[in-house]
Write a structure and sequence with these properties.
The chain is α+β, with helices and mostly antiparallel strands. The longest helix is centred in the first third of the chain and has 20 residues.
Length: 459
């Protein structure tokens, strides 16, 4: 029937640099008052930008643009222009007028001083103080890794509606609703997953954590928290030492509240609020690397994909089985093995949920079993091609609402109304032999009024 392009909204996960560009300039300036924030931003800018910053780090006066341009080969002039614009947007440097009217660059004074502190004095973790007394309940790195993944998977269990889910705090539920990963449907108070939520589930853990934290920073004022203070604390955690405990004495009430929210997501471990110490987990340590983060505690590969479209999940948890079930048809499950099959219907169901073919393929590659990684290519070509073909097949047909006109008594009546709808630009489809046509929903009222006037005129 009526056909029009259906727009699919894909989940966008900004890196630190892109996120800072969306903030108010005053917020960025306040952020640069902390050394850890400056170093995290410095690590995020392109290599060419880092070169320009280092060249100007100990220069207290403006430098002519012509001089900075001469530091890079002319074949990279376009890259220099793009990097210069990025540094302006991040408020790392700004343009000034030199004596004689020449344009020049000067570094943000606060940013320059704090990068110096990080480079020369090791002031990265300023604001975090390691405990000087031994912890009678010391947590090992392995225990922290296990804890952080369990807490994070608790959130994912809630999203997929797993029967194994533990309760999560209402603040976490509200965040999932705000971020558009879940929504309430009608009168049912139980949130359900959205298209963006399905895409979120297939992202790697590091990207999931970063995305949800960015959503949290946009809503932290609802909890009476400062966006600058929360982001600064996050970046400080990124430079902390894994397995080391830090004191909570001296932390503001806002930081203590934020700490409890991070505890909910598994970014920090705290045995109890009154213990006076906390342990950052690997989830938090990876944040300072921005777009280059690689989560070191990703679960081991568990999937084997065969050319007959069978997918074997060895030792998979309930959550992993639920994720595979997003795009596979589950056949049976044994104590240490789950068997599923990729079918046209199961993949099309995933596509309707907002998951793309590339995301399905990326998930299969990311969680491939160690034995699968020994072969080249990693996944069978027939399976990869077929998943893409199923997506192409579905994308050939796009749908939109329209109104069907039929049962014309005479061919002349059909042609008259068809020509009017065509002239108005609202005719979508026609079949003169069957005297049937479809007009857009927007043009229906106008076509209907014309038909009524035509009918009265004939009478």
């Amino acid at each position: 029937m009526a056909q029009s392009k259906q727009i699919m909204k894909h989940l966008e996960c900004k890196n630190l640099q892109d996120y800072l560009k969306t903030l108010n300039p005053d917020v960025i300036d306040q952020l640069y008052s902390h050394p850890a924030s400056c170093l995290a931003v410095f690590r995020e800018v392109p290599k060419l930008g880092q070169l320009l910053i280092m060249r100007l780090l100990f220069v207290e006066q403006p430098v002519p643009k012509a001089v900075t341009t001469s530091w890079v080969d002319t074949t990279h002039a376009k890259e220099v222009t793009e990097v210069a614009q990025t540094l302006i947007q991040l408020r790392i440097w700004h343009e000034v007028q030199l004596p004689g009217g020449l344009p020049g660059w000067v570094l943000n004074d606060v940013f320059r001083k704090n990068v110096r502190v990080c480079m020369l004095e090791g002031g990265v973790s300023q604001g975090l103080r390691a405990c000087t007394t031994p912890d009678p309940n010391q947590r090992s790195v392995e225990a922290l890794d296990t804890y952080s993944l369990e807490r994070w998977e608790c959130v994912l269990h809630y999203m997929v509606g797993s029967s194994q889910q533990e309760g999560i705090a209402m603040d976490a539920v509200r965040l999932l609703l705000h971020s558009g990963l879940m929504k309430t449907d009608g009168d049912d108070p139980q949130p359900v997953i959205t298209r963006q939520g399905f895409q979120f589930l297939l992202m790697e853990t590091g990207a999931q954590v970063w995305y949800l934290l960015l959503q949290y920073l946009d809503t932290c004022h609802y909890h009476g928290l400062s966006q600058v203070e929360c982001l600064t604390f996050l970046l400080q955690l990124g430079f902390s030492k894994l397995g080391c405990d830090y004191v909570t004495d001296g932390m503001s009430e806002q930081q203590l509240t934020f700490l409890q929210h991070l505890r909910e997501f598994g970014l920090v471990y705290q045995r109890k609020r009154s213990s006076g110490r906390f342990y950052p987990t690997r989830l938090a340590l990876d944040l300072s690397a921005g777009s280059r983060r690689r989560l070191a505690i990703q679960s081991q590969g568990f999937l084997v994909v065969e050319t007959n479209y069978r997918v074997y999940a060895y030792g998979a948890s309930d959550l992993q089985v639920a994720l595979v079930g997003l795009f596979c048809e589950m056949v049976y499950r044994l104590p240490n093995l789950s068997v599923a099959i990729l079918t046209r219907d199961s993949v099309r169901q995933a596509l309707r949920s907002g998951i793309t073919a590339d995301q399905i393929i990326a998930f299969l590659r990311m969680h491939a079993h160690a034995e699968m990684k020994k072969q080249d290519p990693l996944l069978p070509g027939t399976v990869v091609d077929q998943i893409k073909l199923w997506e192409i097949e579905r994308n050939r047909f796009t749908f939109a609402e329209g109104v069907l006109y039929n049962q014309f008594l005479a061919q002349a009546d059909f042609e008259m109304l068809r020509n009017y709808a065509r002239d108005m630009g609202c005719l979508t489809w026609e079949s003169p032999e069957k005297r049937v046509m479809v007009v857009t929903k927007e043009g229906h009222d106008d076509v209907k009024r014309y038909w009524r006037r035509y009918g009265r005129g004939n009478n």
